[in-house]
Amino acid sequence: MTVNALESATVHDTAARLCNSLRGDLGAENVALWLHDAHQGLLRRVAAVGPRASELPEVFARQVAPQCDEALLTGRTVPVADLGLLSGFAAIPLAGREQPLGLITLDSQPDPEKVQVYAPHVATAVNNAIMADELVRANSQLRAVDQQKSEFLNVVAHDLRTPLTCIRTYTDLLRMYVDEPPETYRDFLTIIAEETERLGELLDNFLDLARIENATIRYEVEPVDLDEILEHFANVYLAKAAAEAIIVGRRVQPQLPTIQADRRRLEQVFSNLMSNAFRHTPRGGSVMLAAVADDGGVRVIVDDTGPGVPKEDRARIFERFRQARNADRSGGGTGLGLAIAKAIVADHGGRIWVEDAPGGGARFCVHLPWQPPPGAAVLRGDQ
Amino acid sequence: MSGKVVVIADDEPRLLASLAFIVQREGGQPVSAPDGLAALAAIREHRPVLALLDVMMPGMDGLAVTRAVRADLALAALPIVVITALGQADHERQALEAGATRYLRKPFDVAALRDLIAGYLRA
Ligand SMILES: Nc1ncnc2c1ncn2[C@@H]1O[C@H](COP(=O)(O)OP(=O)(O)OP(=O)(O)O)[C@@H](O)[C@H]1O
Ligand SMILES: [Mg+2]
Questions:
Q1: What average pLDDT score do residues A255-269 get?
Q2: Residue A303 touches chain B, beta carbons under 8 Å
């Protein structure tokens, strides 16, 4: 809290005004106000007035000034004896809401009666400034969340509209032009069926992402054989691979132990990596899958021989709706696949990233621990 | 059989194909463009009787194409229908300001679009 308060102009202004008026009222030349950083045991200067103000340290540790420490702990005003520049100052503690708020230091012995009157007011004023600042902060955070939500909705609406417009248009065409040959009907119905499917996929993706982000997704952890999963995907893509003359290879470390994970969600991750690899690999290229034990878990690798992902895009492609700058959207992607994959992997306590494949294409790596670490989101609700 | 040309531009291939289909069925000759730049080039080359332009296209958008056409004296009389997306009311005003003859909202009423195209082809 005090750390935030230190960056707050409201708190600084208030503290400076208070120091100025205390200087006159308590008859001191130099007055400074310090906030207590309980986490680190530090006192941080938020305001100082007087000819020697600039000589004061920005921050000092409680232990190096036992008198200040005593003032904080006891709530009593104490003279500060030997602390270099602070020497000879009196420390007036300020009570906070839960913990001591901080100190006022000044270079004259103040009238104890005056201190009794002033200290609580100063403390209240500083506390109020801090609270006002927290409110402003909380408010702007809420606003940012709101903005993100409405941006999300805008993108959702836009992405849903395209397949919807397609479905509606081709349905109307079928109704309007009844004398077309059967091929036209078949073509239009295929388009309608595909766009309907795409609409369903989009909806699933949006829901998945929403569930992951608000932590309502349900995971089921069980032993998962990655060799089996990779074999499954290699088979699923056999027909597509043959059609596009793409070689699919698989290299799994023998006797690779199973990992504890949500099988269906992991399949979702690898399904996206596979479809991405295929989408970006030209005819005659190859897609290589690998799994090896590595660093307390297993590393799964998907290599392709496509254009790869430029360095400057490597972080953003994992954000939702973000695609690489050079991406063509003709493949029908929504830019959600990797965001979902990243969230699922992170919920397992793992990591996903992209680098250069040895052959020049993209290499997507997923590192998963043998079992999710305690507190991992996949374990939530599993107890 | 070279009918009157209608230039159509949309970055969604399937929507583009549906527009081409209607133009063809109504006896026109569709010239398709996947983006604004291609649309402008097609308009200059083919001297169409009508242009149907989607607003949201990569690179040069439908509004920019409209402005470029209106700035060209030789093309200034070309009827331009700009296709806007629902919920982007701003685009409709911008389309008219850019010089569009009219705008059509997506998802559009296909029968109305057909009548509109047929009207320009018969004129
Ligand atoms: N194997 C790859 N090679 C090159 N670029 C890639 C590869 N995989 C992903 N990308 C880039 O990352 C972007 C984001 O990928 P992501 O899977 O999140 O979305 P998408 O595939 O476009 O859509 P979706 O998966 O939602 O259908 C892609 O659009 C592409 O630009
Ligand atoms: Mg994808």
A1: 95
A2: no
Instruction: Give B14's contacts in chain A (Cβ within 8 Å).
Output: 166, 170, 191, 195
Global ipTM? 0.91
Atom of ligand 1 nearest to the CA of A361: 3
Is the domain of A252 the same as that of A120?
Answer: no
Contact yes or no for A173 and B21 at CB 8 A: yes
> Which structural domain, as residue segments, surrounds residue B50?
5-122
Counting the structural domains of chain A, the total is 3
In CATH, what number is assigned to the domain containing residue A186?
A: 1.10.287.130
| pLDDT of the residue at A24 | 87
Query: Å from A149 to nearest chain B CA?
Result: 17
User: How many independent structural domains does chain B possess?
Assistant: 1
3-state helix, strand, coil in chain B (%, to 5): 45, 20, 35
Give chain B's mean pLDDT: 91
Question: How far apart are the CA of B121 and the centre of ligand 1, in A?
Answer: 42
* CA–CA gap between residue A166 and residue B17 (Å, rounded): 10
- Long-range contacts of the stretch A326-333 (C-beta < 8 A, 24+): A330/B13, A331/A279, A332/A198, A333/A276, A333/A279
Quick one: A132 and A259 in the same domain?
Answer: no
Same domain, A100 and A171: no
Pocket test for ligand 1, best of A317, A318, A345 (most atoms within 8 A of CB): A317
Q: What is the CATH number of the domain that holds A319?
A: 3.30.565.10
Q: How far is CA A126 from CA A40, A69, A212, A353, B60, in A?
A: 20, 20, 40, 46, 55
How far does A57 lie from chain B, in Å, by closest CA? 56
- Return the higher-pLDDT residue of A240 and A367: A367
Q: What is the pLDDT of residue B64?
A: 95
At A52, the pLDDT band (50, 70, 90 cuts) reads confident
Q: Could you report the per-residue pLDDT of A327-360, keeping only the tens digit for each?
A: 444 445 677 899 999 999 999 999 999 999 998 8
Residue pair A370/A207 in contact (Cβ under 8 Å)? The answer is no
Q: Three-state DSSP class for A333?
A: coil
Q: Is residue A54 part of a domain?
A: yes
Whether residue A144 lies inside any domain: the answer is no
Write the residue in B85, B109, B110 that is nearest to A161 by C-beta: B85
What is the domain extent for residue A204?
151-213
